[in-house]
Specification:
This protein is α+β, with helices and mostly antiparallel strands. The protein has one domain: Sufe protein. Chain: A (Alpha-Beta Complex), CATH 3.90.1010. The protein contains five helices and three strands. It has a three-stranded antiparallel beta sheet.
Length: 144
């Protein structure tokens, strides 16, 4: 089941492409495999109103980026940071984090069984955290 959901997101990813009028972005690259992602966001009144990703990566990284864009749009900055923390725990196999995560994120739980691939799934979420940290530097978001 998890693998099918990951493949669906890889083959037809949500949120691929730049967003118009981005207020912040984060970028990550893995020089060993060549995966690279840039996540851009538009924040209005403490809410992520648009999110998109650009770049290239393996199926797990691309699927994770797709799930990210589908899940965080409409979240407050605080809730987005909390979700990133939850995804981190999910990727480490934390059963509590696995309990009904939003959207298709449960599919990422299967990645925890493959430690060498956890970094692939984590990369877009790290880029989002970088984007949110940039918002924080501008005084727009406080850490949970």
């Amino acid at each position: 089941m998890y693998q099918d959901r990951l493949l669906q997101h890889y083959r037809a990813p949500f949120g691929r492409g730049a967003v118009t009028g981005e207020t912040s972005f984060g970028a990550r690259k893995n020089p060993l495999c060549g995966d690279e992602f840039r996540v851009s966001i538009v924040v209005e009144h403490d809410t992520i109103t648009q999110v998109g990703f650009e770049g290239r990566g393996c199926s797990i990284a691309t699927a994770s980026a797709s799930m990210l864009t589908q899940t965080v749009q409409g979240l407050s900055l605080h809730d987005a940071l909390a979700l990133i923390d939850r995804v981190e725990r999910l990727l480490q196999g934390d059963a509590v984090a696995e309990a009904a995560p939003p959207g298709d994120l449960i599919a990422l739980a299967g990645v925890a069984a493959y430690p060498q691939r956890v970094g692939c799934a984590r990369m877009p979420w790290q880029a989002l955290r970088d984007a949110l940290d940039s918002e924080g530097e501008a005084g727009l978001v406080a850490r949970p």
